[in-house]
Amino acid sequence: MVGRTWTSLCLLAGSWTGARGLGLEEHPDIKAISLRTHSLEPPYLDSDMQSRWWDFGGDCIVRTDQYIRLASDKASRDGWLFSRVPLTATNWEVTVEFKIHGQGNLFGDGFAMWLTKQRSQSGPVFGSVDNFEGLGVFFDTYKNNRPGTVFPYIVAMNGDGKTPYDKDNDGKANEVAGCSARGIRNSQVPTKARFTYFQEQSLKLELQYKADDEWTECFDVPGFKVPPVAYLGFSAETGELSDNFDIISVKTQNLYKHNTGSNNAAAANSGKGSTTSSSSSDKLPKTESSGGGSWTWFFMKFVLFGLALTGAWVGNTIYRTRQRDRF
C-alpha cells in the first residue's frame, strides 16, 4: 500500500507579507507572517529525500516537480500528508492549491483537509481516522445519499473525538457548514481553497475554480472554535470509483493585528518552527514608539559623553600641572 518517490531539494522560508491578496481586504489592520513549518511547495523534499516539516503515508506519491498525490485514479487507494508540528497560531490563513482529475465519468470518493489533535493515521474518513477531535473539511466527489444536493459537495465538521462521521449520508448529520462546488473537478484554472480563521470568532472558506483570482465564498461560520494545538493535514481515498487527488502547494500564514500587542504573530514560529503556545508566541515585544523619547535619550547620552570628556581633560591638566611644579 505504500508508494513514494523521493527526490530533489526542498527550500522552505518564512517571510513577512501584508494583507493584500490574502482575502483580508475587509481587515486592513491585519498583517501576516508566512509559516514555513506548515507550508509546502515543489520540490517538497530536502536533500535527505525527506521533509523536515511533513510526514507522508499510505498510498501517497510525491512527484517533486509537480504534486503530492494523496490517492491515485485506481480503486481502493488512500493516502495522507500531515504536519510534524502543531499549528499554534491564534489566527491563521491556509491557502491550498489542489487538483481533482481523472478520466472517467464516474468518480470518487474525495479528499479532506484537517486541523486535528490526531495525525498521520490511515482510516475510513477520506483516508484518515474517524472519531477525530478538531476540524475536518471534506471535499466529497461522490454522492451516497443526499437527495437534492449537487456534487462535488464540501462539508465542514467540528469533531468532538466521540462522534463518527456520517459517511452513509455524506456527512449530513455532522455538517456545520457546506456548499456545492461542481466546477472543482477537472477545472481549467488552478483550483484553490482559502481558509481564514480568527480564534473563536469565525472560520471562512473561499474557493477559486471559475477563473484566476475569482474567489467564491463557500461558508463563513461565526463562533467556530479550532483546538489551540492541532496538526494540519490532508488525506484522500478512492473506492470502487476513483480520481487523482493532488496537493500542489500549501501556504499557511499567521495573522496578527498591526501595531497591537494582543494579537501579534509569532516570528519564532515562522522562522524556526517553534512549537510554543500561541498565548506567548503571538505577542511581540513592545518598542519605544515616541520619537520625542528617543531624541531625549540621545541628547542625554550626548551630554553625559561630553561631561566625561571634560572631566578627563580637567583631570589630565591638573596632573600635568602638578608634575611640572614638582620639578
Automatic annotation (TrEMBL):
Membrane topology label: Single-pass type I membrane protein
Cellular localization per UniProt: Membrane
Membrane-spanning residues: 295-319
Ranges of Low complexity composition bias in the record: 261-281
Major localisation: membrane
Gene Ontology biological-process entries: endoplasmic reticulum to Golgi vesicle-mediated transport
Protein name according to UniProt: Vesicular integral-membrane protein VIP36
Organism listed in the record: Massariosphaeria phaeospora
